Amino acid sequence: MDVSWEDFGWERLALGVGRRRLPGWDATVGLVVGAEAALLYDTGSTLREGAQVRAQVQALLGGRRVTHIALSHPHFDHVLGTSAFAGAEVYGAVGLDTLLHRERDAIRADAVRHGVAPDEAAEAADLLVAPHHPVCGEWTLELGGRQVLLANVGPGHSGHDLALLVPGEPEVVFCGDLVEESGEPQAGPDAITSRWPAALDRLLDLGGEDALYVPGHGAAVDAAFVRAQRNELAARFGVM
Questions:
Q1: Mean pLDDT across the chain, nearest whole number?
Q2: Taking 80 as the threshold, does the pLDDT of residue 37 lie above it?
Q3: E-state strands within the chain
């Protein structure tokens, strides 16, 4: 299935693959559609935003629902919309489930600090969904006529960075915040800066030279952009 994604407010990246840049923090949510299943990569910053994404996906897919969710990392603008997708199977880097339970209040506070209304942040944090399936290494998912690969390529931007490779023409790699285009990569208190350049090396190995790389924030980029950002981060953090 490959309708006009733009008619529904989404950017088409490849056959059956698209993304939406959400308002506010310019965070990306990605969508991969197979004959039997649909995978969403990240879910937005609030339940309201997650519900909006859910409605857009269902309109785009003629009523079909999101069946699988992959969470790129634990920051509020990427995970707080997850509970809007009842019944979806949720995947995350190994250890993310424990972290989301332990850091629920910190994630809520971070959302409020960045401008999310306190009541919305509290509601989303109370209903925060931890991954059902921890990804250690790589995990291939069958979506019906197409396979995708989840890869635990971190740590780097956080301690739990999960990338998504979608084979095709072109191959598409959803990078989460390991790569940012619309601003300088952000290194918060949970960043593992000594490992970040190596995580980008793994992304490049995953996608190769001809892939389309989709940052957590900003426009899609090529391998040369990812490599340049890798070298900038290495210099910034004093890592080879």
A1: 97
A2: yes
A3: 11-14, 17-21, 28-33, 38-41, 68-70, 89-93, 133-135, 138-142, 147-152, 162-166, 172-180, 212-217
Consecutive H or E run containing 234:
helix 223-237
Contacts of 155 (CB under 8 A, 6+ apart): 161, 192, 195, 196, 199
Residues 127 and 121: beta-carbon distance below 8 Å? no
Burial class (CB in 10 A: 0-12, 13-18, 19+), 119: exposed
Distance of alpha carbon 54 from the chain centroid? 15
What phi, psi does 144 have (nearest 5°)? 95, 95
CA–CA dist 188, 139 (Å, integer): 27
Nearest CA among 204, 178, 20 for reference residue 93: 178
Structure tokens at 217: 């924030």
84 Cβ contact partners less than 8 Å away, ≥ 6 residues apart: 43, 47, 50, 51, 53, 54
41 near 70, Cβ under 8 Å?
A: yes
